[in-house]
Amino acid sequence: MLRRLLLSRGLVLATGLALGSAASAQTTVNLAAFADFAGPYANVMNDMQGGRLAVIDWWNKEVGEKMNVRIALKTYDTRYDVAQTASLWPGIKAELKPALVLGLGGPDAAALQQRLPEDKVPMLFGTAAYGFGWKPNQWALNVRPTYSHEAAGFIEWFRTAKLEGKRPVKVGIITSEATPAYADMAKGLQAYAKANPDKATFVEAIWTEVQPADLTLQVRRLANAGTDLIVIQTNTAQAVATKRALQSLNKNIPIMLSLHNGVLGSSKALGNPNGFAGDYEVGAIADASEDDTAARKFYSMLQSKYGAKAGWNSMTMLGMGQAIVAVRAVEAAAKAKGATGVTGEAVHAALISTDFTGAQLMGLLPGVDFKPENPFPTGSAKVNIATMKDGKVVRVAADAPVPAIPKW
């Protein structure tokens, strides 16, 4: 039911705005959004989508109304599938003529990265970036640096906080060759360790299935090698298999997760609400902890004033973070070109030329500074680090620096 509500809401919104624009002389700017209500992220998609919609509702009322600009969002279920995204795109482009697309993840980049410059439509991702997207003059942009940048930021914090800076962190990674995105995470981490032997020693990459049944033998190798930290930025299935292996081996090696497979979601999949206590989730975006942050205050306002239904969790944060950059880009394009000049090309120009501050982004991101040579933030990127305690997400470090990593 909620899925139908969220999907239909985009249609109703678009229709209502078209009718309202004639009466109020407002310009409607169409955005498209990709979602997965039927594939691997179906169980968390409602929160991400709810975060997107709440931010757009807020911007339309608080900002767009004063500019005579209104954003209409229409959502398409791509099932997190390359072929589905590629097949839907020509119709989306013809129907909406979107000024921007809210992408979901790797399949969307694979399907459209080469097409978007020709189509003159930028695409924004709330997820971290990939090394294979690290090319100049991109139209597929991530509001966070690469997964390997985020892991490197955490490793440097871990070395100081847990090892007192006395030696390099011995780090292993659980991943898969099933998708280019997953394989890229290992390549980037290896590149970081090779460039920084005083900070990290790369132990091993465990290549396994996307949904492994058992990883006991592989995790035993990591434990026997003296691994200090296991990085898993792929999915909850690999996180759960690794945790079960550690439990069966009676080993206590901390796991570093990303936001889309964070400590709450992974604990739920494990069947224990406190199952990932002492492990970490890391992202260059505000965390969904209980701390009284600017992002939490913004979320609470969206709940009270705009009826936001999404829960306070990392997936909602991804949707909100992606949407806040999108609306600020539309805002910047409208200021530069006028309300009727908000085209995909104008929005892309605004994204590349504007350094969005953390305050402009309502504390959801530390800042976003796209440049033609970098399709993700570099200078403004910082990671937030949270852990689990008593079944709750608790922040342990804010704005930890993200180091430079050589291209891989």
TrEMBL record:
Keywords: Signal. Residues 1-25 form the signal peptide. It comes from the Bacteria. Transmembrane segments: none annotated. Residues 28-361 form the Leucine-binding protein domain. Belongs to the leucine-binding protein family. This is ABC transporter substrate-binding protein. It comes from Ramlibacter albus. The lineage of its organism: Bacteria, Pseudomonadati, Pseudomonadota, Betaproteobacteria, Burkholderiales.
